[in-house]
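Supplementary Methods. Inverse-folding protocol.

Structures were first reduced to a discrete structure-token string of length 184. This string, shown here, constituted the complete conditioning input.
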């Protein structure tokens, strides 16, 4: 049931990932779901850069070194996490948004559409028992120094994925949907 898949989807972090590999087929299946996100004026703005295998190490080094060189609030813990997590993951996908060159719709709609594509990926991963989460470190704004980004293309974060053995915790929300809803 879609309702159960939605409710049971969790943010699953690298510390929870096992050593079990994710296959290219699984990655392709997850990406295929992204492409069915809704899109205003059919701009289909979602773009992805897949780091799977050896390139995960390059991503980790890039993130850690870029963080060190650019932050004015250095923490050894964050540096270590950036060095370790992209390699511990089964796969990391940079989430990018391609601005429509004609700017036919506001940028927020392109970001919203890309976020919906990510939710499709997250739900598909969840159904495949692949843990995932969206990470949004400051270094995402520098991804263009590691991989080619087209004019108007912007990185919105990283989709970490990994298989896991442990039971996932129950999700929590601070308040109910009734508290966030007004019926007019
Ligand atoms: C746009 C976006 C950015 C996020 N960035 C981070 C992040 O940088 N670090 C992090 O630990 N979690 C991040 N998350 C994951 C959330 O922390 C997680 O979804 C939230 O705690 C709710 O837990 P749940 O997804 O298991 O319901 C992000 C989620 C979204 C949607």
């Amino acid at each position: 049931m879609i309702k159960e898949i939605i409710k049971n989807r969790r943010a699953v972090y690298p510390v929870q990932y096992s050593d079990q590999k994710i296959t290219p087929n699984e990655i392709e299946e997850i990406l295929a779901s992204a492409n069915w996100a809704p899109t205003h004026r059919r701009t289909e703005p979602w773009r992805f850069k897949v780091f799977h295998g050896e390139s995960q190490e390059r991503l980790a080094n890039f993130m850690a070194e870029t963080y060190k060189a650019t932050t004015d609030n250095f923490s050894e813990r964050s540096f270590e996490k950036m060095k370790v997590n992209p390699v511990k993951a089964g796969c990391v996908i940079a989430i990018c948004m391609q601005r429509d060159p004609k700017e036919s719709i506001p940028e927020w709609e392109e970001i919203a559409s890309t976020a919906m594509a990510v939710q499709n990926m997250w739900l598909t991963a969840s159904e495949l028992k692949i843990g995932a989460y969206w990470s949004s470190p400051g270094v995402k704004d520098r991804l263009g120094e590691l991989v080619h980004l087209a004019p108007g293309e912007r990185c919105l974060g990283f989709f970490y994925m990994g298989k896991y053995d442990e039971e996932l915790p129950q999700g929590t929300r601070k308040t109910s949907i009734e508290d966030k809803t007004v019926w007019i």
